[in-house]
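hey can u check if this looks right to u? its 92 residues, i copy pasted from the old doc so theres a chance i mangled smth
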Amino acid sequence: MHIVYRAENLFDAHLVKDALEAAEIPAFISGEYLTGAIGQLPAMDYIAVMVPESSQATAEGIVREVDARLSEVRQAMSEIDDLPDDPFVVPC
């Protein structure tokens, strides 16, 4: 198994894993359960998405696409000045 993505959080790892599995590439999240052991601390380099060596090249292209979309969303969220107090209201 080879690491194709190091995730900042568990949500990102699952988004990448789901995208890989949608492309019929088997994927595994390494370190998924370590986040409970470190509590509120950031999960720096503990969470990684892994794929078999035979799928690595194809997986890297998919990972680049998902990572680019995640970066766009993070950038858009950082540009929003006033977030609503209600957690159920999503800014558009």
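The first helix runs from residue 10 to 22.
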